[in-house]
Amino acid sequence: QVQLVESGGGVVQPGESLRLSCAASGLIFSSYGMHWVRQAPGKGLEWVAFIRYDGSFKYYADSVKGRLTISRDNFNNTLYFQMNNLRPEDTAMYYCAKDVERYYNSGSYDSWGQGTLVTVSS
Amino acid sequence: SSELTQDPAVSVALGQTVRLTCQGDSLRSSYASWYLQKPGQAPVLLMYGKNNRPSGIPDRFSGSSSGNTASLTITGAQAEDEGDYYCNSRDGSVNHVVFGGGTKLTVL
């Protein structure tokens, strides 16, 4: 079955950087759009980034545009999230999720990782 | 960007039917997807598209839509259906998605 395993979270100070990874298995990774979705402690879900199956298009929520960058390595079946200039409001559990579609952000994510926690605090 | 509105909390008696709703302008042009998140776990996709249910999701879950409102109906709620339910939809013409604030479902 599909397995998505995130890593790279941790505690950082405001302005610092982190790189999250999501290792995928049990699927043809290069065939699907992928996402990062986050959830602040005690809050709801927030979609933050999407990358097309081949990496040709990327879309970001306004809250992270210009600071966080999604990328993928289809050879190694891995999704990445480079997080720069982190702010306290970026504190959240970050989930990688697989779209049911390959070309566009359908909103339908049928596989999720267990999440990796990012805490931004001085 | 658009917003999706969900009731913060709903309760249902064991075995009864409950309908959860999701309202927003984006639903006039895009289908909703529905997720269930249990404490400490990742969300699980329940329904998507016109009325698609991923494999492994019980058929007591069904979806519908009218105008700016999408609904998720649980026919014969079970104890394991307790949790937070989220809807989402594509946000108009951009490749963005917006989530509702979530509904906490309690099965009595």
Characteristic key phrases:
heterodimer; A: 122 residues; 7-stranded mixed β-sheet; 11 strands; 0% helix; B: 108 residues; mainly beta; 4-stranded antiparallel β-sheet; globular
Provide structural commentary:
The complex is a heterodimer of chains A (122) and B (108). Chain A is mainly β. The mean pLDDT of chain A is 96. Chain A is built from no helices and 11 strands. In chain A, strands 2, 4, 5, 6, 9, 10 and 11 form a 7-stranded mixed β-sheet that branches. Chain A has a 4-stranded antiparallel β-sheet with strand order 1-3-8-7, with no helix packed on it. By secondary structure, chain B is mostly beta strands. Chain B has strands at residues 5-6, 9-12, 18-23, 33-37, 44-47, 61-66, 69-74, 83-90, 97-99, 103-107. Chain B is globular, with a radius of gyration of 13 Å. Classes of the chains: A mainly beta (122), B mainly beta (108). The A-B interface holds A 44-47, 50, 57, 59, 61-62, 95, 100, 104-110, 112-115 and B 1, 30-33, 35, 37, 41-45, 48-49, 52, 54, 84, 86, 88-90, 94-102.
Residue-averaged pLDDT of chain B: 95
Strand content of chain B: over 45%
Broad structural category of chain A: mainly beta
Secondary structure: helix percent of chain B: under 10%
First CA to last CA of chain B: what distance? 36 Å
> Unreliable runs of chain B, pLDDT <50, ≥5 residues?
none
* Overall strand count of chain A: 11
Main sheet specs of chain A: 7 strands, mixed
Number of continuous helical runs of chain B: 0
Q: Could you say which overall geometry of chain B the principal axes of the C-alpha atoms support? A: globular
Distance between the termini of chain A: 40 Å
Beta-strand percent range of chain A:
over 45%
Q: Biggest sheet of chain B, open or closed, and with what strands and sense?
A: 6 strands, mixed
Residue runs with pLDDT of under 50 for 5 or more positions of chain A: none
Q: Give the mean pLDDT of chain A.
A: 96
